[in-house]
Every structure is written in structure tokens, then in C-alpha cells.
Amino acid sequence: MTAKAKKQFQAPKGTFDILPEDQKYWEKVRKVIKHVAIGYGFERIDTPAIESSDLYALSAGETTDVVEKQMYTFKSRGGDPLTLRPEGTISVMRSFLEHGMQQLPQPVKLYYMAPMFRYEQPQAGRYRQHHQAGFEVLGDQDPIYDAQVIYVCLLAGEELGLKNLSVEINSIGCSKCRPAYRSQLLRYYRSRTAKLCKDCKRRMKKNPLRLLDCKEEKCQQMHVNAPNLIDHLCQECHDHFKLVLEYLDETSIPYVLNSHLVRGFDYYTKTVFEVFLEDEHVEGGSEKSHQRSKLALGGGGRYDNLAKALGGKDVPAVGGSLGMERIIGVMKKQDVKVPTLFKPEVFLIQLGALSKKKSLRLFEDLRKAGIVVAESFGKDSIKAQLRSADRLGVKISLILGQKEAIDGVVLLREMDSGVQESVELEKIIKVVKDRLKK
Ligand code: HAM
Question: Residue limits of the Aminoacyl-transfer RNA synthetases class-II family profile domain (predicted)?
């Protein structure tokens, strides 16, 4: 294949196909997320993959990397500025406001599983299209929901069989207590400006809190002695955070306080958290915290001011989401067993024009009876069809030849012993079911 042709057959940089052999992992993740979500009273929501670009400028803060550098933004043919959604929370809040969900009993608990798009430098665990499973609780300020969201995120990972998960948690305060802290932080970094990276110098002007979030080694060293946000919380944020921790203490969650944890979106207030895989060195992973290289499987927090930023009323809310590719990456690494999706028990072989015609109907009768059947109808030789049956490891092959089709019978072949017997077509379903039970 020429280099040009090869390129033509390549998915765009940072994106990939989910091939049949990987679908079992995705099926499992979707199933477990749904199960956990429904168990905790979350209802499914699906929002469009495109949103008006203004939404992100209003809500995520123009100083976040995602909004500043990573959005896929374009103009529609009609000239409307549109963006491929980089995350789900803003869309969910937009939908909540658009559909007047304040009128529903509060809180409204919603979950989603959807692709997100970020123009990032692709590396292990970081893609330009990735999928998130998210849980959002809208319309309630009670700290018990902060704890519940964190618990649900962790639980989903655990129910998927993942080991060594841990949670880091922090409070980043609110619009009342953050300004004073910001001044302190600026004072600390001002004397060290020369040593900061280019992005951090910009952050000093635009959003000093994000200084703490810098992944550059030299900047990280400076964070160690930076003033702690937790020591500067107002009474309300302090009490809220204390209760979140007390609720978490009632669960078995292994959480760690990380006073330098800030998140990549400006919409957060009070509680922020991330779910990590502990003690794993992740190749190419850049999500570092406490000088250790760890993979963030998920994250979230409270976003009480987001609705107002979008132009709506006060809607206190909290949520979190998990990166589905990263979860699946860990499942594979930890060798989590997942059932094969297509495991046929019976192979249907046809020989001759008449039996080929009848085999479609017989296949459907077997399927309807709950028997998983395979075929290779395009092949005409018995040898080739038996080879396919062998490869699939079925217990039984049913052979419908020309004579059998005329006589209204089918040959049942036990694959292990090779023993064959003739069974009347009307009785075949019952006989197959009985044999499969043995
Ligand atoms: P986030 O931390 O940006 O938060 O993304 C959540 C998770 O998605 C990350 O922890 C990571 O596992 C995964 N993820 C993010 N970017 C990528 C990428 N480029 N490639 C692969 N996986 C990625 C949010 O998006 C917030 N909306 C979470 C939230 C929900 N906050 C409140 N509710």
C-alpha cells in the first residue's frame, strides 16, 4: 500500500475505531454504568454532540485549557459558531435550563455516556475523541450529594472489577472566600515568577488558582509550599467540606485530601475530586500529583454557579465523570474477565439449493427459541462449513442437506464425538435445547 493510500485509510489523529474484538469491554462498561446509575436514581440523558460555542465561553471560563486551546470550533453553513462538545456537564446544565427541569422534584439526577472531543496532543490515555460516563445531580446543595457522586464514580470502577482505585478530594471555596486566597497565592508566586513556565505566567494574570494545576515539573516543585486553599475557606465552604468528608467516612472509600487539587474547568465551586488508579506508573501519562505519576480515571466536583453563568437561575449542582477508554485500558491491564458477546452453541450447515432456502427460516426459529446460532451460508461445501463450526467451538452442528429438506428432518451432529442422528424438523428445537443442557 502506498503511503498516500495508507493515510487515506487511517482514522484522524487521536481517534480510533472500536473494533468487534473490543466491544465486549464497552458492553460491560455500559452495562455496569447503567446498572449503578439506575440503582442510585440517575436517569439517562443524551445531548447533541454539538453545542453553540458561546455556551463554553460563558461557562467553562476562557482561561481553562479546554476552552482556550482544545475546542473543535467551526461555523455551520448558516454561519452559527458551533463546538464539538469537549465535556458533558455544561450540556447537561444547558438542557436542564432549556427544559425547565427546575419545575421537577429536586434534585434531578442524570447520567450519560457519550463521546467528547478535545484537540489534545495524543498520547497514552489521551485522545482527541474520548468517551465519558457522567453522573450529575442538579438542584440540590446538600453535601451528601457531593459524597454520593464521588461514591458512585468509585463504585462504578469497583463494580467493573478494577483494583487499587483511590479518590483525591479538595475544596476550592466559593466566590466569597476565593478572592482573598487568590491574593495570597499571587503574593507567593510573584516573588517566584521568573521560575514559572510560560503558561503559568499567563495563569498569574488570568486565573492564578490554575497555577496549582500545572503539570510542569519545575512549577510543581513550587506548589509544595504554596498557601493551602483549605486554610482559607469561608465558614460555609468549611462546613460544607467537613460534612462531605464525614459522609465519605461513612462509606469505605479510600480518599486522600489533596489541598493542591484544582480542576480543569472554571465552573467548579467548593468540592472537587479525582479518581485515580493507585501505584501504577502510566507510560506517557502526564496527570501528576504529589510528584507521583498516576492515571486520572475520572473527576468532578460541585458547580453551584454554572447555571447563573449560563444566564439561568441559581441551580446548585454536583457531578463527576469517568473516562471510558481509560477504564477499559485498566480493565485490560488488570486482566478483568469479560464475557464474549457472541458465543454460538449451534452451527447450521446447509447443502444444496433447497436446504439453503429453508435454512434462513430454521435459523430464525432457533434464534427465537434463545439458541445462539452461527452459520457460513455463503459456503457450499460441508467440509468448509464444518471447519467454521469447529473454529467457533460449538457443541452441536445441524446439517440440512437436500434429502433432509425434502424429508422434513435435520441431522444433528455432536461435535465432540462426531455422532450424527436424524431429527424431525418439528422436534429439533426441543432436542437441541435438551442436548445443550447436558
Ligand atoms: P475531566 O476531568 O476533564 O472532567 O474529564 C473526566 C475524565 O475523562 C478524566 O478523568 C479522564 O479519565 C477522561 N478524559 C478527559 N480527557 C480525556 C482525553 N483527552 N482522552 C481520554 N480520556 C480523557 C470533565 O470533563 C467534567 N465534565 C467532569 C464533571 C462532571 N464535573 C462535574 N460533572
Answer: 1-339
- What is the tens place of the pLDDT at every residue in 184-227? 999 999 888 888 898 888 888 888 888 887 878 888 888 888 89
Residue 266 sits in the same domain as residue 385: no
Please tell me the distance between residue 95's alpha carbon and the centre of ligand 1 in angstroms: 19
Instruction: Return d(Cα 355, Cα 404) in angstroms, integer.
Output: 8
Residue with cell 463546538: 83
Tell whether 287 and 419 lie within a shared domain.
no
Residue 394 structural domain = 346-437
pLDDT, greater one: 14 or 278: 14
Q: What is the CATH number of the domain that holds 293?
A: 3.30.930.10
Q: How many helices (H) and strands (E) does the chain have?
A: 16, 18
| Same-domain check for residues 419 and 322 | no
101 and 244 in a single domain? The answer is yes
255 is annotated as contributing to ligand binding: no
Residue 89 annotated in ligand binding:
yes
Which residues are CB-neighbours of 129 under 8 A, at least 6 positions away?
Answer: 14, 15, 115, 116, 117
Interval between CA 368 and ligand 1 midpoint (Å): 41
Ligand 1: centre distance to CA 286 (Å): 14
Give, as one character, the DSSP assignment of residue 160: T
**Is 181 strand, coil or helix?**
helix
**Residue at 142 is within a domain:** yes
Count of domains forming the chain: 2
pTM for this prediction = 0.92
181 Cα–ligand 1 center, Å: 26
Q: Is 190 annotated as a binding residue?
A: no
Of all protein residues, the one whose alpha carbon is nearest to atom 16 of ligand 1 is 126
Q: Which residues line ligand 1 (CB under 6 A)?
A: 87-89, 118, 120, 125-127, 130, 132, 134, 136, 264, 296-301, 319-321, 323, 325-326
